Amino acid sequence: MATSGTMGRARRFRYQDHQQCPTGPRPRQPLQNERHDMHLDDAVSMLDTGSLSQDGFLRELQSFEMAVPLKQTADGGSALSVFTYGSHSCAAVFSAHERILTHLRDRPAAMLTGRQLAGQWPSDLVMALNPTDDAPGLMIPPAEVQRMASDDLQRVVPAGTRTFIGAPAEHPPVELQHVVRELVATTGEIDRAYLFQMGIGEDTPELVLGVVLRGTADTRAAMSHAAQWVADHRPVHPPIALLVLSDSTLDIVASCVPAITGEEPWTPPSRSTESDVRRIGD
Question: Which residues, in sequence order, are CB contacts of 246 under 8 Å at separation 6+?
Answer without folding.
Answer: none
